[in-house]
Specification:
It comes from Rhodoglobus aureus. This is NAD(P)H-binding protein. This protein has nine helices and eleven strands. By secondary structure, the chain is α/β, with parallel strands linked by helices. The protein has one domain: Rossmann fold. The chain has a seven-stranded parallel beta sheet with strand order 3-2-1-4-5-6-9, sandwiched between helices. Strands 7-11 form a two-stranded parallel ribbon. A two-stranded antiparallel sheet has the order 8-10. Strand 5, helix 4 and strand 6 form a beta-alpha-beta unit.
Length: 248
């Protein structure tokens, strides 16, 4: 039995589907009830003991837009100490050990906690998802211009990340594995232009520097992986698929 945290999220859904299609028995963990979901709270640990009963591996995908993910990781590790598993797979982000962004630093702390726990583990770092980039553009759809940060990024397909996670489940504990990244590094301006072309939009793109230590980290490119990345789907392909879906 494989327990997937964050199972109802953007990465969790395709990961659960692929694990199930591959013949694995999967238990989905979420704070909210739903079909095929076991309810537990990673922030407090409530329900984790029941969620881990009979589980041999955990795919830890739960994450949020804050700098407190390590608190949830601590709760999960405490629960696993009482209900041992054979393999813990953790989803992380490229560059967390060098980046000044608080969310990245906290993600790196989770990595360190897992590595020091004594639990057999695998850590996969990936670059930013296509859908993360798309949300920036969708949020500005009613503005006369698109405003983007002035650094480059290496977006990756969520579905391909899910495929890699399934491979790692089958491979067994591998500790820190090779970073998983998109096939190209493009500036946000280039990505915005590709998005506009795919959606038949004619609008100007303004790029602005991101201030502070986090902006300097992005400018240095610590969030980028080496080229070529292992993924294949480009952002232009994703944007075309998104535009086609919006027209249906």
């Amino acid at each position: 039995m494989i327990l997937v945290t964050g199972a109802t999220g953007r990465l969790g859904k395709p990961t659960v589907a692929l694990l199930t299609d591959s013949g694995h028995e999967v238990r989905s963990l979420s704070r909210r009830p739903g079909p095929g979901v076991v309810v537990a709270d990673l922030s407090t640990g409530t329900g984790l003991a029941d969620a881990l009963a009979g589980v041999s591996a955990v795919v830890h995908l739960a994450s949020g837009a804050n700098a407190h993910d390590s608190q949830q990781t601590r709760q999960l590790l405490r629960a696993i100490a009482a209900h041992p598993v054979d393999h813990l797979i953790f989803m992380s982000i490229v560059g967390v050990d060098e980046h000044a962004l608080a969310f990245y630093r906290d993600k790196h702390l989770s990595e360190q906690l897992i590595a020091a726990s004594g639990i057999p583990y695998t850590i996969l770092r990936a670059t930013q998802f296509h859908s993360f980039i798309a949300r920036l553009f969708v949020a500005q759809r009613r503005l006369p211009v698109t405003v983007v940060p002035s650094f480059s990024i290496q977006p990756v397909s969520i579905e391909e990340v899910a495929e890699r996670l399934v491979e790692l489940v089958d491979a067994g504990p591998s500790q820190r594995v090779r970073d998983f990244a998109g096939p190209e590094q493009l500036s946000f301006r280039e990505l915005a232009n590709e998005w506009n072309v795919a959606h038949s939009l004619r609008r100007r793109v303004w790029s602005l520097p991101l201030p502070g230590a986090a902006g300097r980290s992005f400018s240095r490119g610590v969030h980028l992986a080496s080229l070529p990345g292992d993924a294949h789907v480009t952002f232009a392909e994703y944007a075309r698929t998104h535009a086609e879906s919006a027209m249906r």
